[in-house]
Amino acid sequence: MNSDLFFSSLQQGLILTLITYGVMIPFRLLNFSDLTAEGAYPFGGAISTSLLLANFNPFVSVLTSSLITGFIGIGTGLVYLKLRVNSLLAGIILSTMVYSVNLRIIGKSNITLFDSVSLFSTDDILNNISILFIVIFIIVVSIKLFLHTQFGLRLRAVGFNQDFAYRQGISITKYTILGLFIASAISGVAGSIIVQLQKYMDIGIGVGIVIHALAALMIGEAIIGNNTINRQILAPFIGATIYQQIQGIALSSGLPPSDLKFFTSMLVLIVIAMKEYGLTYRS
């Protein structure tokens, strides 16, 4: 694999890292099976696109789209908790609804942003990677600090044992919704960043993104485990960067791009099989 493909894969891996954090929080910290990232990711991109076209500062567009996208997670939580809808189905419903909202926001299925100001340069991939590292560092540190606050400890308690949390007077509804809000907000950051990076917004950018994030998460956990908070926080970063390099190697070896989804699904099954037979990290 040549250096250009390596850096390109690293760049894509860092973006996938953000989405993987958006998947890790509900799946691991809340024990909540969730597909909301499939809708939150393109929703963040659509909001950021509309703001950039309105000449908003690119940094402001990232923050704004992140906060607004967080409400999709709230919606998923309310549908699950108040309407008693299965968590996976609740995420699918919200993601399906958001698809139409995205079309309303950007007005068409795809749009270019070549004339808009962006956080990223089109010809300096090392600079882009540096910015992505800074964004991920800020998010990782924020997650770690949050999880050691009273709010974070209560959120972890809800994910670990809801009955115990309830007996301790912790609101299951409040902390489930808080966790889903944070997860969707991070997915919104990823969506905002990808449209600024590629200067292009397509309505279908979120299709299948959850399976990629889950593959990355499982690879990371297979390598370093998830039995501590530090390992849970590092696993998405390690898994996403390695996963994207594996895809880069596969493509450089002649794998047709049309076969990537099959390759991804097979990779997930392989990691599951390795975990089942004790071939992954064990403390």
Task: Give the fraction of residues assigned to helices.
Answer: over 70%
Strand proportion, as a percent range, falls in under 5%
Q: Choose one word for the global shape.
A: globular
Please tell me the overall pLDDT: 92
- Computed CA radius of gyration, to the nearest angstrom: 18 Å
Poorly predicted runs: none
Order of helices and strands: HHHHEHHHHEHHH
What's the end-to-end separation, in Å?
33 Å
- Strands of the widest sheet, in order across it, are 1-2
How many E strands? 2
Assign the structural class, choosing from mainly alpha, mainly beta, alpha/beta, alpha+beta, or little secondary structure: mainly alpha
How many domain units? 1
Query: If helices are DSSP runs of H or I spanning 4 or more residues, what is the number of helices?
Result: 11
Largest sheet: 2 strands, antiparallel
Task: Provide an overview of this structure.
The protein has one domain (3-205). Helix 1 runs parallel beside helix 5 (125-147), helix 2 packs across helix 8 (172-198) and helix 3 (58-82) packs antiparallel against helix 8 (172-198). The two termini are 33 Å apart. It is built from 11 helices and 2 strands. A two-stranded antiparallel ribbon has the order 1-2. It is 75% helix and 2% strand. The chain has helices at residues 3-29, 37-53, 58-82, 87-106, 125-147, 150-160, 162-167, 172-198, 209-224, 229-252, 260-276; strands at residues 110-112, 200-202. By secondary structure, the chain is an all-alpha fold.
